[in-house]
Amino acid sequence: MRASTFAKTTAVVGAVALLSTGCLQNPNAGGGGGGGTGGNAYVDGGSADGDKVVTILGAFGGDEEKQFVASMAEFEKSSGIKVQYTSDQDFTTTIKQKVNAGDSPDIALFPQPGGLLEFAAQKKIQPIDTFLDYDAIARTLLPGLLDVSRYQGRVYGAPMRNANKSLIWVPKKAWDSGNYGQLDTWQNMVGPVSAKVKASNIAPWCMGWGSDQATGWVGTDWIEELVLKMYGPEVYNDWIFHRIPFNDPRIVKAFDEFAKVAKTPGQVLGGTQAITATKFGEAMTPAFATPPKCMMMKQGSFYQSFLPASVKKDTDNQVELFAAPEYAGGFKGKSVLGGGDLAALFNGNDPDSIAVMKFLSSDKFGVPWAKAGGWMSPHKTFDVANYPDNLTREVAKMANEADAIVFDGSDVMPKVIGSDVFWKQMIAWVNGQDSKTTADNIEAAWPKS
Amino acid sequence: MSQRLMKDGRPVSPFSIVTMVLLSILWTIPTLGLLVTSFRTRDAAAASGWWRAFTEGGWTTANYSGAWNGSDLGTGFINSLVVAIPATIIPIMFAAFAAYAFTFMDFRFKELFFLLIIAVMVVPIQVAFQPMLDLFGPRGLGISGQYIATWILHTGFGMPLCIYTLRNYMSTLPRSIVESAKIDGCSHYQTFWRLVAPMSIPAMAAFATLQFLWVWNDLLVAKLFLKSENTTVIVKLQQLLGSQGQGAELLTAGAFISIIIPMLVFVLLQRFMIRGMTSGAVKG
């Protein structure tokens, strides 16, 4: 009897301890070791320590690279640290080769958490709680962004960019004059509203999946959106982390729901067969023709940089954004399918790299980038006045007010699924394969562990 | 005089003239399309195919200025030359020595060694990246990120084919010349520099053209073994793209900027190209 009472007491104490740290989920709260990857031991990759030079590898180049460099300029001046950024379109492969050869950068900016988790498992990345004020950034970050890079209880990626994928884009003038109704529920959106658009001789949906070897990812976003809206964040996370099988009947139902848009005649501009042939970056261009050829498009916040030049000059008057609506009978509340870049530290004992990480993960980072457009802070406390237009401010507000934010599932799933099989099966699905077979095929390809 | 004759006395064939003109046009069309697209705005290129540019317009030179300014292509050009020139000269120099030895010298296991060198041509460069990164990286020689790393790699991967072509060419040279030089008391060193090397210039120039083009257009070696400060123009082009491929319209313009130097090289060396390509083709 005594023994069992003792066991109960410890269980309660343990639970209380879990709860008290659990609200902020800092696994290293006491500063003690014993975490999943060996307490406070340091990973020592990257370039020389304390040399005032920090190397960063990321996936974005061009304008985004310029804005990133501009965002680091002031920090470099005040700290005396030189940041050397390299971009690589084939980031996922390059970082793997570099790390395996012992030639890792000090910091890498992961566009997908999947690759980051692999390195976390190999103990190549420093858990962020050992050098960042975990509780402080957890308070200001949008909820859910830290959990996506959690491995065995510890968090390895510091969010430095946020994306919102739960957006419906429409051409403002045509939409306002058309009186198509409210996007209050998903069913209304794909039903009566779409029918009304169709009645005015405009295709209700602009849809393009074309993205070279990555063709199909736009389709995965739709499925993710539907799983989130129909069943809520818990089922969604169970699904992306494979705690329920991919071919669960509920997921198959989400495919069928999507078929009401993608595979129903008259819903998509050019018909179903045009979907994979249209480039995702050009999907909405026909919506700005007079008269518009299509009306609604579901795409992430980054699409702003793909708008036609004439529209980009005047986004606030030309484009209207709606949050993807709730699914009637599904999850109640505002839910957002998000994404973003995560910074990971490979050089755990270099004070300069740590200083850069602290700056990158703070709500101070990114003001010049925000002003130039195309970037949103993952922090709720970031001043929205910095964004260049109302459109971006609106998107940021949607994320700040969301009841649930989940991470883009195909970025979290194992690479062979999320960046290959899921895409290809979506293409097969849109070309006529039925929902059940599609989900079964993806489940069959899931790596056995 | 029913049939016109060519310079060498063979009759002119209208069939082959028509075929060749058609084929050349067919082969040039994609490049022409790329050239037209590089002068069109992103929206115009998205709205209609390049062949409709002549009626629909949408012309711009902004892609060229955007590509040039967007990624510091000027530095990229200099870096590319620093990579490509030594990476062309070094393999040809070594390969010429080796080809001379394989053609005119006798030593044990000569055929076996030659076979081995030819055999490594089947190793694709991609499978060698991980071990080479390891060897050149901080755990090995520590030269990763410097020009010398790319010179070594391009030399290693260019040499087998170079040895093969040069040996085939050298074996067509009249053996009697080399033998008489031997009788006159020439060392191998003298024979090579005074006789064989000058006579092999067409083959070497032909291979130099190929090797230069290959090194200039290389993306993977430069990307993995150089740093962003000293990387080549091809890598800089790729870095024009944003996370979802924003800026793709600049790539077409960048591609035409980057082919200026290879075009010059090709034009200057092309008369050697023709002679070098067929070198050794008839020798059994």
Automatic annotation (TrEMBL), chain A:
InterPro entries found in the cross-reference section: Bact_solute-bd_prot1 (IPR050490)
Highest taxon listed in the record's lineage: Bacteria
Keyword annotations from UniProtKB, A to Z: Transport
Record-linked SUPFAM superfamilies: Periplasmic binding protein-like II (SSF53850)
Annotated family: Belongs to the bacterial solute-binding protein 1 family.
Protein name, as recorded: Sugar ABC transporter substrate-binding protein
Organism the protein comes from: Arsenicicoccus piscis
Automatic annotation (TrEMBL), chain B:
Gene3D superfamilies per UniProt: MetI-like
Membrane disposition: Multi-pass membrane protein
Top-level taxon in the UniProt lineage: Bacteria
Coiled coil: none
Positions of transmembrane segments: 12-29, 77-100, 112-133, 145-166, 192-216, 250-269
Limits of the ABC transmembrane type-1 domain: 77-269
Compartments reported by the entry: Cell membrane
InterPro entries: MetI-like, MetI-like_sf
Record's keyword terms, sorted: Cell membrane, Membrane, Transmembrane, Transmembrane helix, Transport
Entry keyword annotation includes DNA damage: no
Protein name in the entry: Sugar ABC transporter permease
Origin species: Arsenicicoccus piscis
